Structure formats: C-alpha cells, structure tokens
Queue: 2 jobs
Job 1
Amino acid sequence: MIGYADVHGDLLPINNDDNFFKAVSSAHPLLRVFIQRQDEVDYSNFGTNTLSRKKKALVTLRNDNLRRRPHINISMPHDFRPVSSIIDVDILPETHRRVRLYRHGCEKPLGFYIRDGTSVRVTPHGLEKVPGIFISRMVPGGLAESTGLLAVNDEVLEVNGIEVAGKTLDQVTDMMIANSHNLIITVKPANQRNNIIRSSRMSGSSGQSTDSTASHHSLPTSHVLQNFHPDEMESDEEADIVIEGGLEPQHIPKLHSLTSSSLSRINGSSLSHRLQRDLVLNNNSGRESNGSIHKLLSSLKTDPRHSLVIPRGGIEEDGTVITL
Amino acid sequence: AKLLLLFTCLFFVCLLGFLVQARTMRRFLRPGHDPVRERLKRELFQFNKTVEHGFPHQPSALGYSPFLHLMAIGTRSGAIKLYGAPGVEFVGLHEENNTVMQIHFIPDQCQLVTLLDDNSLHLWSLKQHSGASELWEDHRFTLKGPPGSPPSAAQITAVLPHSSREVLYLGTESGNIFVVELPSFGVLEDRTITSEAVLRWIPEDYCNRRSCELVEALQEHPKNPDQILIGYSRGLIVLWDRTSLSISFQQLENLSWQRDGSKFISCHYDGSYTQWPVSNDNRQSLPLENLVPYGPFPCKAISKIYWQTTRNGLPYIIFQGGMPRASYGDRHSISVIHGSQQIAFDFTSRVIDFFIIFSSEPTAEFDDPSAMVVLAEEELIVIDLKSAGWPAVHPPYLASLHCSAITCSHHVSNIPLKLWERIISAGSKQNVHFSNMPWPIDGGTNIAPDPPQRDLLLTGHEDGTVRFWDASGVCLHLLYKLSTVRVFLTDADPNDNMNTMGEDEWPPLRKVGTFDPYSDDPRLGIQKIYLCKYSGYLAVAGTAGQVLVMELNDEGAEHVVDHVEADLLQDQEGYRWKGHEKLKTRDGPVQFEAGFQPFVLVQCQPPAVVTSLALHSEWKLVAFGTSHGFGLFDHQQKRLVFVKCTLHPSDQLALEGPLSRVKSLKKSLRQSFRRIRRSRVSSRKRRGGGGNTSEVRGILQEMELAPVQRKIEARSAEDSFTGFVRTLYFADTFLRDSSRHCPSLWAGTNGGTVYAFCLRVPPAERRMDEPVRAEQAKEIQLMHRAPVVSILVLDGRNIPLPEPLEVAHDLSKSPDMQGSHQLLVVSEEQFKVFTLPKVSSKLKLKLTALEGCRVRKVMVANFGSCKTDDYNENDLAVLTNLGDIQIISLPFLKLQIRYPCIRKEDVSGIASCVFTKYGQGFYLISPSEFERFSLSTKWLVEPRCVVDVPEVSSNNHTHSRSVMENASRKSR
C-alpha cells in the first residue's frame, strides 16, 4: 500500500492516476511517500483527523529513515515488485545511465526497438564517427516506455555488462532477448538534461532525476538502487518448469501445498499462472481446459483427477527448477 | 590469550587458504590458467581447413599440362585448383579475387601462368617443401603498352608459353604481340611483333581492309619452335618467322596445329573450319578444305578445334560449338568426328573449355587421343575416346554435388566394411554405363597416409535423391545414389528421356552429365537422413511430411511399400492447412533396384516439412517431428505408437503452411540483400585504399540510408512456431526413478520445451506380439524459451550414451548404468545439464546472453591426443550463428577453444555445416563445394602429394633436344 502525506500532513493513499497526480502536483518541496504492507494498513486512518498522531508517526518514521541512510535496504515485499531501476550511478560517468528492466513475471511487453546508427566519439585524433546501436522506437504502454528511463535515440552502450561496440544489430538483439528476463542496458541518453548530478545528492539512496515529470507516468515508478550486483538476481532468473507425468500410484496429488504464497514466489510468469489455473481446474472439476497439462493428460488417456502427480512439497523453488 | 587467539586465527587463515587453493586447482581456475589443461588442449585441438570437395563454383578457365598430367581450373573468384591422380590436388588464390581468364602451363616445367581479367599475369610454381609439393605464386606482372597508347594496346588476349621455357608470347587487343622473359616478366622490346610489321608483309588487297585487330590465337609450330602461328580476329593468319600467310574472310575464333606441322586448322565465327597447308614456297596459301559441319543453314561459331591424328589414318576432329543457329543454337555442345562416327556431346551447362589427352610421347608419330576432358560451368565430363561408343569416365573427384540442390547432409563415421562393400556393390550396378578406363589425369603422387577409417557423407537433394559419398579421404566421390521418387506418383513424364534419340537424328546429339537443377516436384526434397551403420537401416524424411524407412537389399526387388498416415493435429479443430498437399503414393508393388529399398512410408498430416528425425535400429523405432508435433513409429510391427501435438493454440502461422511464410521470407531476403550490398560497398571501399575514417564514414552513410530496426521482446509461449520440433533423441536412461532405466524418447521444440516419453519395448522374442507402449514422463519448459537444438544423456562416467547397436557390435563400452545419468539440453542460447531422474538444473553455460551468438549446430565429438594414443575425451563441437566454432568440454561445460570458421554473412554455409564424430566437419562454400575442416590434431584428412618433374632423357627426346639447341643458339 502506497500512501503520501499531503500539505496538511494527512496520510492519503495513492491507488489511482488521479490521486497520484494530485500527490505529485501538491508535493513541495518533497513528496513523502509511505509504503506499508497491505495487511498492516489501517484503512480507517486515511484522511481522518488523526493529524497530530500521524505527525508523530511521521517524525519517527523520518528519523528512522535518517538513521538507516548509509545502508538503505529496499526490501522486496511479496505484494509488489520492481519493474525498473537505475543502477550503478556511482561508478558510471554522469552522461551514462544504467537501467534495469525486470521483465520477469511482468505481463507487459518490453516494448522497444533498436537500430544501427552513427555515434560520435572523442578520440585522440579528434571527433570520430563510429557505428552504434540506438533505441529507435518505444511501444506505447510497454515496459520500456512506462519506466521513463529510456527514450528514442538513446545510444545503447552495454547489455548486461557486455559492451555493444563492434557487435552487429542482430547480435545485440539476440543478447537483449537472451537477457530479457533481467535486462540491464547502459545507455547514453539522447536527452542529457535529466542526468543524475552526483554532487547534489539529496539522500543516501543516490541522486534523483532532475526531471520530475519524466518518470511519473505510471505506477510503480522507478526506484533507485545502488551498487547492484548481477548475481543477486541470479537465483530467480531462470525457473525452468518441469512437469512430471509419471503415473505411479504412490504419488498422490497434494494440491493443498499450492498456496498462493508459494506461487507468488515465482511470481506470475505467464506459464506458471496458466499452470496454476489448469491445476485448479483439473482438480476441482476436471473441466475442459486447453492448457498443456490437460493435453498431456488426455493424450495419456487417463482420468485427470488421478493422474496429476505433484510430488511432496508442491511447488518448490530450488534455485533454478520448479518442480510441480 | 591474545597471542593465542592470534595464532589460532593465523592457523585458520592458513588452513582456509590451503583449502581454497586445493579447491581452486580443479574448479575455480578460469580457463587459461591451468597449464596442464592448456598443454592438453594443444595436444587435442587444432583448427584447419583441410580440403575443398566438389566442383569449383563458377569456373572460368581450364589448363592442362601433358607433361605433368595435371589439370588446372581457374574460377571467377580468383582461385586456381590443380588436379592430378586422385589425391593429388593443390589450391591457390589470387589476392585480387579477379576472374581467372586463361591458364597456361609452361612446357616441361612445374610452372604455370594465369591471366586475370584485370590484365595481370601471375606465375605459379609447384615447389617441394618437407617432402610434399606446394603451390606458390612467384611473380606477378601487368603488361604496359607504349606511353600514350590506349589501354587496349596492352590488353592481353592470347598467351603462348614458348617451348623454350624462356619466353611468353602475349597477343593483345591492339594486334601487337609482346615477348616477355620468364620468370622475370621482362619485356623483350626487340622481339615485339607489331601489327605494323605484320601488315608490311600483307598484300595490298588485304591491307585495304581494317588492320589486324586483336590477336585471337597464338600457336607454336609443333616441330619448329621458331615459327609462331598468329591468328587475328578479322581472319588473317600469319606464320611468323616464315611469314607465310593465310587469309580467310570469316572472323577467326581459334587455331590448332596438326602434329606433324604440315597443316593447321582454323575455326570461325560462322560455324566453319578450314584446313590450311604449310608450304615452303607459297607466301599466301589456299585452304585445303573448308567445311561447315552442321550447315547449310546458319550456324553458331566454332570456338575451338582439334585435329588429332591416329595410327589408322582417320583423324579425330573435335570442335566446340558450330550447331545450327536456329534450332540448336542453345545447346552447349562439343562434336567428335572420327571417320563415320560422329557425336555431338550435349552438355548440361555452358562449356568453359576442353582439352584432349593424347600421346604426349614426343617420339610418337600420331596423337592417338585417348580422352576428352570438358569443363562445363557446372560439372567436369571426361569422355573415353578409345572405347566403343565413347562412354563417359566416372570422375574420382570434382563431383557435382549440386546436380540437384543439396537440401541436407548427414555424416556417418567408421562404416563397417560389410556395409561399405554392399553400398559400393549397389552403386557399381548403377555405374555400368561408365567407361572402365582408368582416370586419365594421373599426374603427381599421393603420399598422404591411407584414410584412417571409412566415412560416408550422405547428401539429400531437392529432387528426392540421397547421394552416398566416400568421404574417407581427399577425393569425395559418389558411391551410390538412392532415389525416393519411385514410391510416389509425380507429374514427371517417365518417358522424358533425352538419350532415346533415333539413329538418324541430325545433329547426332547425346546428352552427357548429371547436372539437373530443375526438380520435378519440390515436395520430394529430402530434409533429414539417418543411417544406422550397424543394421543398414536408413530413414529418410522429406518436404511433404514423408518418412521412409529402408533396408539394404543386394538384389533388385519388387514389393509393396506399407503406408501409414500420422495425424499430428489429432483432435485440434478449426485449423486449415494452406500449404502443399501430401504426396500421392503409388498403388501396388514397386520395382526397386539393388540398394536401399523402402519398406514403410509414414506421411505426416498436415504434410509439413519434417524437421527432425531419429531412428533406433535396436528397438526398431523411428521418431519424426514437424512444426505441428512429433510421432513414434514401430517399423517392426508397422504401427504408429503415438503422436503428440506440440502446437500452441495461438500459433496460426504454423498451421497455414509454408505459403503464409512467403511474406516474411521476402522480407528477410530483402534484408540479406541489403546486407550483402552493404558488405560489397565496404569491400569496394577497402580496395579503393581510401583513408580509414572515410571508409567508415562510407559505411555509415550507407547505414543511414537503410536503417534496419529490430524488436526487443521476450519470447513467450504465444510466439509463432514454438511447437516446431527441432530435435529427437532416443536414450536408455533413468527417466522415472534412479533404480530402473528404460528406453525413452526425448523431443525438443522451438519454444524451449523438452518432452520425455517413457517407452516399453517388448523383448526380442515377443517383439511382434506385444505393442510398443509410450507414456509421457516429463515436460520441461526452459524459461528462456530459446529453441532446443540438441538433447543428450551422459552416463554415470559422463560419457554420452552410445549409438543404438554400437555396444552390441563390440565397438563401444557399455554405458555406465551404476552412476547417475545426466541430461544435457542445448538450446540456441544456453547449455544446461540436469540431473536424472529428478530433473534439476546442475550446471549451465550461457552463450547468447554473454556473447551475443547463438548455437546453430552442435555435436559430440571425440578428440584424441596427438601425443599419446591412450587419451581421448568427448567434447561438444558447436557452430554459432557468427560462424565461430567452439569446443565445449563435457560434462563441465567449459569453453575450451574458439575458431572463426565461416563468414557470418554466409547463412547457407552455416546452415549446411555437419560435424563428424571425430572432430571434423563439412560446410558448403558454394552450392557445389564442401569445405572440409578439422578441429582435431589426430584426425586430419588433407591432400599431401608430390609432383616430380619427369626425367627428360636426351637420347629419345628429340623435341626437347631441339628446344635445347634452339635455346643455346639464341643465347649465343
């Protein structure tokens, strides 16, 4: 649950575009955002006359923030997840931006195109034109566009830490698609006015975009991480799905372990969603479904209610494979 | 206490350090840091492009040395290839990559001169180096005309290497003949024969006509090296040094001497030839005979002619062209006339050049021609002129791989002798119409060691044939040709035979050659081949979903081919296949010749192209896959075991068939053309020698004109062709639990899905009684969803499971069934090892995400050490879409070594690549040529040969002696 403190100090929710714009437009000088777990939110507090009590809470919260500044740790609660971030701000030149797109589990398309082009580089021999890769088009409503961190004509310098220089458009395309579940692109933005200015860092969490409108088209907005290590995300990047189609009687379906929380850990990759749906369908009613499980079962010509085999433990995530 | 603590700490640090070090030894060292492994790598791997098989693409010139018995072929890309006895071959490449226009061997020397279309001359020689001959370019030279003259003045049109071996006569477009010294290419100004000098000798009435014009032909007198016969294109023929003169009024094409030097013969633009006497008194001779062989109606030019004498008095008159213009003007013919016999050999493509092999013994009184060698644009044809009926000779090399376009290839290493002999015997029955003459071009000596094993390369062709090539050694030659056409009813008219011509047909054309690029029916095209070398079972699959299982039969037989349809869509509804129809089968028994005979036909429905095929000869099962699904067929009981539809419901494209793909194909064609154009531009720029930056700028400008855009999108299940079955694999492994192993079938799709089926194959004694059963055991979805290109199971010792029947034939150790098996799934983007039977990821190697390249071909190869005989290991040989070859170790998936092999623009080259089991490979460098390469230090098949200069014995070598005398006289 995301809320903000309005000019009067009232805690108000941000849950649609309108109150979001209201929050942004009324913010001055700072927009105070409150993030709470869904189950901990006391909805009765919103907008009511609890100003004084809330003020106190605000103060303590803010103090907390200040104290933790050196190692701020933005956790990833299960209720929401990041879709994009600017990373490695401290080690990159100010003219560059490293953007991470979390495609994994997101229903939105990545939604951008790249093209060949020419780039001007400063060399010992003066300015030199060299071939480069550029973002050529954004798909409206796509993940790339919605982050506001990438724009048409941004030059792509690196893909997941690998330099693009000397590679063909097709190679870069393949690299991006191969990394699409966790794409980190370093760009040189065409518009250099929104660069992060390090000297005027406002909080410990890193610099802020000086363009306040650029990244505020949709929720959730980009948040800023620092010193990102690619290995951190290694574990959830590739969850191959294995469906056991064995028919031994000792494997009794145990669907009770298919709780929403265990599913949410693999968090909505489209296939697992479908699987979940199919599993539920098959177990509850044995109804027709066009999912792969059902096809599998029907091809074996057995009763779906008895053939569905889920080993003990239901869905478990052992790093790279999810076993149903 | 503090001190103690410190010591304890130190101790722990040391221990830790030691442990880390110990572990690092094996695991954590990056490749390149382990000196032992590095040395081993050098002993195992080595990349070499060893030999080019097949027929040179776009040949442009032919040369022959009767002295060395070597033939030379030049190509439009500037390559020059020399061939002698089987196994004797050399390749040279002109730096300029310009078309080779002419090739001339220097008489009695291991040297030859090439003329390129940029008017440069190149001197090549065969030199011995560490026991083997090598072809080297010695000199290059560009003739310059006198200052101020037009460029045509120095444009070389005819080259005559003089028998003195000291000079070259160079006829030019201006009519002047320059003489250059060898090997320095210094112009001997005083010996230049200018057209003015010639004209001085010419009677007034001819002088009034145009000047001599370009020199069409230069021929040395066979007996008197001082006399040079010069033919000018306008029809003037001059015997220089004697300055006798012959004048015809037809545009001259070529000249040729008779052996005794008493006569010469000229051929002309109007399709006529003329015989001229060489008389001592007459300054202007009159023709002895003037003939238009295919007259009286207008004929095409005769571009080359030979007059070959024989002992029995009747000459062989052999000429190229001369066909009646109106009715046969489009034929590529060479006519041979010998007494009353006359045949016009009708070639399948344009004739580049030809030569006659005749008695080269200088003392011999007659030519006594034995064979005619014809280089046509698409094939080499040798005609035996000694045997009755002039049959063709089966060439041991330079095979036209592309007589019908190659659609796929399959390599089988180490063929058992029994199967080898049976294939050869089947093939020999097909080759009865060939001459028994030994290969007449027999120069040089092959000193390469005998091939280590018998290897077969099978090529599938567009016309529904499979060709079996002996790929053991340097000479790739055809053993046997299998046609699948007979099984089907096609539109082709069976009576359409060119050879059945009446006796009294005129001209007496006879079709020769096999090049036939026109397929009767594209659905017949072969897409996948699998040969079991132990059982002789062959499975062949084609474009219209047909799968044929065949057995080798040493006798011709007539039998019915059982026919089964496999509906891969099963109960999927609402789809309409818009592609081609399935092939119609022939009812009733079909006559098959000796060799592989089909006994069962499975036709997939919809009849989409078969994209994967696997045969298990021990279980008698064949698995096949298309873009819709896959099926398993029991070819013992002739029963379909199961089919599995892999189609995603939203994938309309796959259902509609190939027609709907035309659009995207067009688009990709356009893009590749654009790419080619761009690379051309860049190469031209490079040649122009402009500055580096301007070159880059040029390329960039080109790019700006044609911006290409690529969509970045994660693959999803809804993408097109996700159901396309890319690979099928049989394995006896632990699929269900770790205590029992069972036969299994694995399938990988374009959408990154792997299906595993557990099979129950009845024991041999009940094999016909009980059905084969299959149950789906597993389905793995790779989250990166890249196409699965290969599946492999490693046994308990990390060795890939042996081929079916390999163990039964005592050729392989039985697989380890004690330790746990592992599954290797290779997608276009990653290599992943999983445990079995519980499929959990153990290890992976990312390729695309880190390198930007994708796997195109992968195969397990066995590499032996060149140092010790007892060490060998299995690795993965991988070809990427960038044309790189990588070797990746098993089972730890460490990149060992990488070599650039194929240009990344060469899409067909990459697509055609096949690896062998022992670290060699083949890929097409043109439609007609395979490049062979080797990754192994141990298995290397490359030409190694010696060309010795034959002894020139002076006592019975009058010709040579006279040359020597002349030479010495000249030097005086």
Job 2
Amino acid sequence: VLHTTRPLHTTQQSLAPVPPLPEKGGEVRHGLIPEEFFQFLYPKTGVTGPYMLGTGLLLYLLSKEIYVVNHETAAAACILTVIVYAIKKLGPEVAAFADKLNEEKVATAVAMKDEAIQTLQTAIEEEKKEQWRAEGRSYLFDAKRNNVAMLLETNYRERLLMVYSEVKKRLDYQVAMQTLKRQKEQDHMIQWVEKSVVQSITPQQQKESIAKCIVDLKALSKGAHAAV
Amino acid sequence: GPLWERPLMEVRLGELHTWISTCNFSPQGLLAAVQRAWSSYCAKYIHVKQGGPAGISMLLAGYCLLSYGWNYQHLSKISYFRSS
C-alpha cells in the first residue's frame, strides 16, 4: 500500500546518478610513502627533512641489528630491482590497456543510453503523429454522417417510389374497370339493338327486300353485260 | 566539527587524550573503525580512474613489515658466523 501523503524524493541524496570516480588517487612519492607525510614535515624541516629522517632511521635499524641482514635481504634487493624496472618499462602500456578497457565499457554504456534516448524520441514523434491523426476524426465523422444521410435519403426515395407505384396501380385498376364496364355496356346495347332490329323485320318486309335485291341484281347484271 | 566526530588525522596532538577517551572500544566499535579505515584507504588509492602502483605497493610494504615484525625473534637467532 503506497501512502500517497508521504513525500517522495524530498532529500538531495539518491542512489542515482552515482558520482564519478576521482581521476587520480592520492599522491604517493617513490611508490611507498604518501605525499601527506612530506607535507606534514615540510613546515618544520623543509624539503630534505623526510629524507634525513628516512636515512637516520635506516642506519639506526641496521646498526642496532633491529633489521638483520640475511639471505633474504639480497633476494629482496634483486626482486625490488626487477619490479621497479618492470614498472618503469611496462607501466604506461598497461595503463593504456586498462584505459582502453574502461573506455570500451563506458562506450557500451553510453551507446545503450543513447539508444534508449533515441527510441524514446521516436516514440515521442510517433505519439505526436498519432495525436495529429486523431485530430482528423472530425472529418471521419463528417464522412460517416454523410453516408448515413445518403442511406436515409435513398431509403426515403425508394419508399416514395413504392407508394407512387402502388397508388398508380390501384388507380389504373379503377380506370380499367370503368372502361371495361362501358365497353360491355356498349357491346350489350349494340347486340340488343341488332336483335330487336332483326326481330322487327317481318316476313313481309323480308320478301319485299329480297325481291328488290333480285331486281337490283338483274339490273346490275344487265348493265355489266352491256359494258362487256 | 566536534571532537568525537573528527577522524584521527585531523585531531591535534594536545587533544589526542580526550579524543581517545571518546573512542568506542567495544568489538563493534573496533570493527567499525577497521571498516572505516579500509574503505577510506580503498576510496583514496584503489577506486580511482588512473591508479598507479601506489595502491598495492603500500599494502605489500605493510605486509613485509608486519611479517618481519612477527618473525623477528626467529630471524634474530640465525647466526651466519658459526664456526663449524
């Protein structure tokens, strides 16, 4: 449970970033005696003080046989000579090699850091691009709204057309019915009239009309014979 | 700062007596003192970017002196001028 009322990172001290290592170590003279010793004796004895102290001490130790000269002294002398010679000769090379190793380590770390920063930068750019893209959503919604309006319009027109065609069908039906009825009435009336006329022709009239037709035909045939 | 918080190098000779009286001589205190001394030595001479031979050479010299001191009794008894 994180108490949000507790303040975080209020003090200066924190574990990162780690302060860098100092460039050079403490000063040491002749590889053995720290510089502080010489500085400590400088005000009282000047520059040669510590050396005199060292010489006197050495002579005292030797003369009083506190330091016994034995076979190990010769061995120590030879070893020390070799060590000092090796350090003087090969020191700078080893130092350069160690520095190169350090450089490589630091370079990989810095490369990682740069890469991380780069990826974060590209992520920021992508994010900004996405934000810009999100701004265009109003256009998207306008297009969608247009689509929907068009669908509604087409639907409305379709239904209008359907209504019109249905109404027209019904009206055509009524018109066809009326024409049919009138035609039937006409036909019926014509038939009835013909029937009554035919009935009204009495046999007397029929004979008379047939005789007149024969006479007319004879006259016509006479006329045709004469023409030929 | 106050006397009991100063390291040994910054204590003046006249105050040495009082400084020793304020020291913590229990095992934990001694252990802590040894730990402090070692870490300050390391920070000064070993954990640097460009250390030289000084760091280990001082340790080796100290070791040589210590071992000579421990073996002094034996070394002083060796006689090279035995007539045999």
